[in-house]
Amino acid sequence: MSYAYLFKYIIIGDTGVGKSCLLLQFTDKRFQPVHDLTIGVEFGARMINIDGKQIKLQIWDTAGQESFRSITRSYYRGAAGALLVYDITRRETFEHLASWLEDARQHANPAMTIMLIGNKADLAHRRAVTTEEGEQFAKENGLVFLETSAKTAVNVEEAFINTARAIHSKIQSGVFDVSNESYGIKVGYGAGGAAGAAPGTVRPGDAAPQQTSSCCS
Amino acid sequence: MPAVRHGHGLCECCAPTAAAESLGEVSFARSACAAALSGDYFRVKSLATRTPAVLNEDGCGGSSGYTPLIYAAREGHADVVALLLELGADPNASTTAGSSTALHRAAYMGHGAIVQLFLLQAAPQAAHSQHESLRRWARLKPQQPSSTLEMKGAQLRDGLLCQEQDSLPGGMSREGSTCDRRDAAAPSLVEAVKENWVGAPNRLASHPISELVANSGEEEAIPGDIEDEFEGVCAANASSDDFSDVGDDTGPADTEVVFVKEGVCVFPTPSRRQRIMGRLSLIKQYNCLFICWLPYAAGAVQQDVGSGSGSSDVPSDGGSSNGSAQGATLYAVHPIPLSDVRAIHKHTPPLGQHRITLTLATGVSLPSLYFQNGGVKAFLSCLRLHTPLLRSADDANTYLVNDTADPLQRSLCSLELADVLSGGPSGAAGSAFPACAAGSLAASQWQQGAADGDMGLRAQLSELVDRFQQLTQNARDTASSIFSASMLLGTGGLLPEPQPSMALRSAAAAAALAGGDGSGSSGSSNRSGPGAALERRRSSLEASTDLGVFELIEGGAAAVMGTAAYARPPPLSLAELNTFFDAEGRLTNLAAFKQRVHRGGVEPEARPEAWKLLLGLHAPGSTRAERQAEVERRRQAYQQLRSQWRGMSETQQARCSKWRERRTRIEKDVRRTDCSHRFFARERSQAHTMLRHVLLTYERYNQDLGYVQGMSDLASPCLFVMRSAVAEGGQLANREALGVEAEAFWCFAALMERMESNFSSDSRAMHAQLLALRSLVQLLDPPLFAHLEAHDCLSFFFCYRWLLIDFKREFAFDEVLRLWEALWAGVPGLNLFVVVAVLEHHRRRILSEVFEFDAMLKFCVELSGRLRLEPLLRDAEVLATYAGDAGRDIVATSVAALL
Question: Which residues form the Rab-GAP TBC domain (chain B) (predicted)?
Fold first, then answer.
């Protein structure tokens, strides 16, 4: 499948806040209340469209427990976007945001777009963190904020797509050097990406390149 | 197949690049043919199951006549061939251009196992109908010049290629028609094959020469339409981006008992005053036949007063025994693959008892098995149905079982190398025939065995030895690999005289040269990228030795993959497990037990007991009664530990935040453990409650560590196995549940003794293991190491989950049980070698597709559920042996960190 860009995302946050469910809701459009807990890292992908451009999101879903922090840090490298997730029904997951953010700032590239996600919005009756608190934290740290529900799919699309939009506008404004892959962006081919097809790639549908038959005829 | 012209991958310009990726290649890459070509069992299965028509398609929408079966046969993927035949692929399908069939291809490429498959299992009719042409195909390969020992590798190749061309009949040029190939009248197919295949390798093996030819890139030497077939190799390299269409697992082990004879006995003493009654059986598993004789019960040695009466074939308890009870277990013939048996001698006197004697490939004869009430003939006819029996020319009573078995293996046996290939300790080497240790006896005993046998047998053996002389090719490879191995292991190129240990180690490499299984080693020159460049550089190295100058043909661990020379026996049954105990229930030979488990695994019913022994819950020397008492003691100890948290009052809990946090986490994670497994599928079931109890109790038992994610993955198999000891069905009563929980808890605790430091907060043990892994890859596969290094992958973090929970998430649940047994019973650090084996199995794709850490990580994450356990276990063992002392040193550092 052709795409103009590929963005690498990483989903971080405490264990049990719903990272894997968010990913599954976004990639498969379904909610699976019970699934095996994530050890190490899992991986998902989906194609989206921003301003008429096909963009492939490659999303890394990490394990939340702090004993895995050292390994999680190695996944930050080359991420263009991050979803920092907490659970609005568990206050401690909100309180741990600062340390997550510190990790991200330290190990990711500084231009990484971070979206703060207050998940499990469907459980409003058990809410332990107010929307205002979330907004406040996001504002203080320069993050974009959304409350989502992986269960009802509320705001899930927006969370991923708004992040992609932000990254895309950074590309347009020249913040990123897209040829440098440490920004977590790869230029794809086809679909008329800004940078066009990267040299050496062939668009499907093109005639097969004429082989010189010097070697084995 | 015009669309994929050039795509043979043999020349550098045709290395797969994005630029070369045309639509034709893409469609080929997605076809069953490509999957068959690359030996992707699961993908073939998935594609062919979904659309059976692909069995007859060439992958390019053309009418070339190629089928997945032809590709798989040519590449030597025996498992895929077996699968395709099972799915109904037409064994007679032939290519349009050259009318060659899958069998032709297999024969030509030297894939003996596949030829055997056609001959013996799948399509004997087809084989016979093709026999004339096959005869010509088959003879192309094995007859090779024997004087190349002193040649430089390059000359060796050239020489072979010339020879190759010389040996081609006129019509075998590129445009050759098959009519020309069929001119010779073949007496029979079996003979035709045998003539040149004095033993086709019976495991995944291809002929070294065909490897050379295939890798040399000089396709002039490849006659007829074989050349055309190399098209599409590149396409097969291309990966599909998603693995969503991966099929299911292979399913339960395909094990079948094909013959049982009760009342077969062994006379442990010459006087025949005692006898041990038992059951002789033939077991077939994955098309591999095993022979097994087990005494009825420990201590079933009978006094036979009316000597030779032969009337009693009723098993008797050990009551009447005055002989050594453990004698019975000593004589047990634990399943031996038929490939390890060289000959069967039958003795059927008109008066007296009939008996058979098995002579192993090692030359050792097992004690005679007496058929108390006849049945030798039935046994032999049954055997004949499954394996070719050849009556010896010299002695009509001797049958050669394995006349078509792996010649390399046999020649290696005579070089004392069997031990290396089988990888295990030579446990039973001390005495003449106890415990039937399959293939691990020294040459002296080989001689001894020959001397002990009767004259006819000896003549037979010497005939076999003569035949070995036809296998000088293999011997040469052995010799050259001795030097290449010494180079690889950093001992320098000069080796004044081959040390025995070095020779042993090199045997594996030698076998590898003969038998790259296509997954890792085949087509090294097809690789592209920097790794390949390095490899090319390596392959131009020469080793100078006393015997001449050798080129290092194939380097690294990839060369030794797929070479374990034994078949996996069927899992250890409860009955067989009991033969390891003496009358009081003491485990008499822990090493033999472990080796048996390591090789074949354990049947579910025997698992609870076997696991407790493996994990050290039961001391090996403990009697049955002592173990029973232990269970009770452990139950009480567990109950006490459990009451520590059960008895906590609300107020006490309120004051212990750490406990509350861990408890919440455990409760959450228990529901997220093995969700899809039937045992846990129903939420809030008793299984969940028990798992929760086990983990909460462990938190109290080991408060320093507490609970860390991943531990539930380790606890759940323990619980599952211990639960299986109690009758299935419905809820357990409280007392029973407590018993199960207790055993599961102590099992888990014993397992955590090994794994605990994986979970420590400083991750030191994990880092030590990753570091050891890095050193092992450096040792075993320098080109791969260089590739990983060049692309910033040396942290080996992509193996993190594999090591953290011993592959729990990478295999199906039942396979995990099998894997863990093998790890516990095997050498320390075997898990690291399993990791290396995984990397080696996917080496080609890693070298050609992975150019950054993220890609490597993604690649490894996506391997979950796609790994095939048995080949990995086999190769891990081979790698461990191959790594030798250097490997042991590396492993020792990581094991030390674990303790």
Answer: 601-827
Q: Is the Cβ–Cβ distance between B298 and B318 less than 8 Å?
A: yes
Name the band, by pLDDT with cuts 50, 70 and 90, for residue B541.
very low
Contacts of A114 (CB under 8 A, 6+ apart): A81, A82, A83, A84, A101, A104, A141, A143, A144
AA letter at A204: P
pLDDT tens digits, one per residue of B793-822: 999 999 999 999 999 999 999 999 999 999
Chain length of chain B: 899
User: Quick one: CA torsion of B671, B673, B677, B679, rounded to 10 degrees?
Assistant: -60
Tokens (6 digits) for B705 = 């560590």
Best CA proximity match to B42, nearest among B812, B609, B610:
B812
B516 or B711: which leads in pLDDT: B711
Q: Do A65 and B24 touch (CB under 8 A)?
A: no
pLDDT recorded at residue B198:
35
CA distance A189 to B209: 43
Q: Which residues contact B890 (CB under 8 A, 6 or more apart)?
A: B772, B775, B776, B779, B829, B883
| Token pair in block for residue B645 | 């948290």
Who's near B129: CB < 8 A, 6+ residues apart? Answer: B92
8 A C-beta contact, residue B127 and residue B522: no
> Could you tell me if B95 and B70 are in contact, meaning their C-beta atoms sit under 8 angstroms apart?
yes
| Pairs of residues, one from chain A and one from chain B, whose beta carbons lie less than 8 Å apart | 107
For B837-875, write each residue's pLDDT tens digit.
999 999 999 999 988 899 999 999 999 999 999 999 989
Distances B254 to B284, B285, B287, B405 between C-alpha atoms, Å: 8, 5, 9, 22
Interface of A with B (CB under 8 A): 1, 8, 15-16, 34-37, 39-43, 45, 58, 63, 65, 67-68, 70-71, 74-75, 77-78, 181, 200-202, 204-205, 208-209, 211-216
Three-state DSSP string of B753-777:
HHHHHHHCCCCHHHHHHHHHHHHHH
- The minimal CB distance from A208 to the residues B8, B10, B22 is found for B22
Three-state DSSP class for residue B601: coil
- Chain centroid to CA A181: 16
Helix axes B607-614, B711-723, angle to 10 degrees: 130
Q: What are phi and psi of A115, to 5 degrees?
A: -110, 125
CA of A196, closest CA in chain B: separation in Å? Answer: 16
Cross-chain Cβ contact A215/B671 below 8 Å: no
Of B443 and B851, more confident:
B851
Give, in degrees to the nearest 5, the angle at Cα B327 between B326 and B333.
Answer: 105
CB contact under 8 A, A15 and B665: yes
Task: Verify whether the Cβ–Cβ distance B710 to A35 is below 8 Å.
Answer: no
Q: How distant is the Cα of B22 from the closest Cα of chain A, in angstroms?
A: 5
Shortest distance, CA A201 to any CA of chain B (angstroms): 6
Q: Digits of tens for pLDDT over chain A (217 positions)?
A: 689 999 999 999 999 999 999 999 999 999 998 889 999 999 999 999 999 999 999 999 999 888 888 888 888 988 999 999 999 999 999 999 999 999 999 999 888 999 999 999 999 999 999 999 999 999 999 999 999 999 999 999 999 999 999 999 998 888 877 777 777 788 876 544 444 333 333 333 333 333 333 333 3
Q: Report the alpha-carbon distance of residue B452 to residue B402 in Å, rounded.
A: 20
Structure tokens of B784? 């791969």
The more confidently predicted of residues B286 and B769 is B769
Structure letter (DSSP) for residue A204: B
CB-CB contact of B687 with B694 (8 Å): no
Nearest to B639 by CA among B740, B727, B721: B740
